[in-house]
Amino acid sequence: MHRVVAIITAIASLSGTAMAQTDQSCIAFEDALAISGEINPQIEGAEAERDLARANLLATLSQNRPQVVFFAQTGQGDGRLQNNQRDNQVGIQLQQTLYNFGANKMARASAQEQVQAAEYSIAETQVRVAQETGTAYLEALRSAAIQVLTEEQEQYYLQDAMTADERLRAQAITIADASQVKASAAIATSQRIDATLVRDQALTRLALLLDFDTACTTGLSAFIYADDTEDVIERETLDSILDVAARNAASLKRAQSQIRSARATTEQNRRAGLPVISFQAFAAYEEDIDVNGPTGDFITRDRIGLNVTSQLYSGGLGKARVDDSLARLRSANSELTSARIALEDTVTRSWVRIQAQQETLKALADARINYRTQLDSIQSEYRIGTRPLGDVVQAAERYYSTASQEINTRYQYYNNLFTLRTTVFGLDE
User: Is-contact 12 361, C-beta < 8 A?
Assistant: First the structure.
């Protein structure tokens, strides 16, 4: 996660609506990503699954190592022990599997792939958490920019609304004009209230995700490697980007590891019924017996040899395990297909939207500038009495509507850039 900080840059402020906030309760975009990567329970859960897979691998590897058992028993009575066991004995037994037709090898391969899949799952979860946090942060920025714009809009209408009655008495405007500008001011106030609520909700959600008392965001214009990502888009085609995404995607790598694990488990289960050759040895110190029972004399016995076992019938357990592993294999293949479709869909949608939004933003920026020029011109003409107030209100509505649309589109564009970059390259690029 720390590498994310190195690829974060700043871009120009958004239409003059940036907030230069420096309060200690503010949090920067890169800090938000870093914090979410450290405290998010989804990542902790993925790391716990990785630790579980590692423990399972160690348990699997232990099957290839000698098994040493200490045994001891004692008792009293005049009856012989079952299976000709000796009473009053103590000893050590060693057993080592020598050959089982590769069943242990397949078990080890399956466990190793599960560990690898868990590692990829952590990377996948980190990307998902970063995207969730980034989206929440961008929504906080967007809603803050809209809130600033609605404040400006409210003040603009209130200036005319406060002088409407006086101008009406002077017969400089009509009753309809006065009513229209008062209504516009009231609507602007309601929009400002709604925008403030949305901004506060966005900041509250961001604070909840980060477990942080977030009162603001640092610098409304601060954002992520936009220039770098735009350069990639200009240089590459969609097909080449999809190829890069397929090579880097942790979701695909995880599914592929799960497929290999399921295949290894299937082979392991298929070989479970084959003979197993083991080495055995033991040494015991025990009370001797004869036909009459324990003699009271103690002797030392030891033995070394080979043991061959083969399961002839298990009530269908072997077949059930093979069927289970085959079902897991089909599930893993299906998950890989689903992950590939989801990846291509995410990359394609982000790519297409970015292409369209680049042109849209240029058009909206031009429209906003022209509408602002028009509004200032009409406002000047209204003040000298050559334009009615209705023209001013309509021009203001056009300008603020376009400015609001530009803000929304710009942050949708930023979010698509962020989604595309993290989906294609992850967090380490």
Answer: no
